[in-house]
Amino acid sequence: MNEAEDLHPIFTKDPEEWMQFVYKKASIDYNLVSLVTDDGVEHVGLVYTVDPVSETFVLVNFDGEDVKVNIVVGHCVKAVSVLIEDSEMYKQRLDRLFRPIAASKMTEEEIRNQQTVVRMWLLKNRLPVEVSGPQGENLSVAEALVIQPPYGPDNCVSNNEIILGKIQGLIKNMPSDQHEW
């Protein structure tokens, strides 16, 4: 066995290989039919995400108002095939499913406007803030804190409790009217 075979796939697979499945309708099967896993069951659903370390898929199925989330553990997956390529058809519905309730009630335009307002407030308070994330959906403050949609105090993520508390307080005390700045 050579050294490359000893490495975990996280070190040998390009993340783009996993991203090609996100928001697509995929079929994951456990036998050698179309998608293969080791118990002979075929799983079909919309791929919300794939964990690149465990190679685990999170599949979602919508049946009217009912939603079924299925987690298929990576070591069982033998093959994956994409059934529907149109990712935009499902993207918004999947994103709304996993967003906080406040964010799911907001339109994309309202979320972008809120991002701009919070960004401007942080800049006014002389904090280094940048737009970050794969689709520019997050705000990054001094590379120490991330603010996710809908950009409220509860949407701040940081390992530094002091910075987290300060930024959350700043956002809580942000005037509702921008003209008061």
Task: Write up this protein.
Residues 81-179 form the AD domain. Pfam families: Gemin6, Gemin6_C. This is GEMI6-like protein. The chain is of the alpha+beta class and 181 residues long. It folds into 2 domains: 3-98, Roll (SH3 type barrels); 102-180. The chain contains 7 helices and 9 strands. Strand 3 and strand 4 form a beta hairpin.
What are the salient characteristics of this protein?
alpha+beta, SH3 type barrels, 2 domains, 31% helix, elongated, Gemin6_Sm-like_dom
What is shown here, in short?
The chain has 181 residues and is of the alpha+beta class.
Termini gap: 65 Å
Strand content: 25-35%
User: Which descriptor suits the 3D outline?
Assistant: elongated
Task: Sketch the major β-sheet.
Answer: 5 strands, antiparallel
Domain AD: 81-179
InterPro entries: AD, Gemin6, Gemin6_C, Gemin6_Sm-like_dom
Organism: Mya arenaria
Protein name: GEMI6-like protein
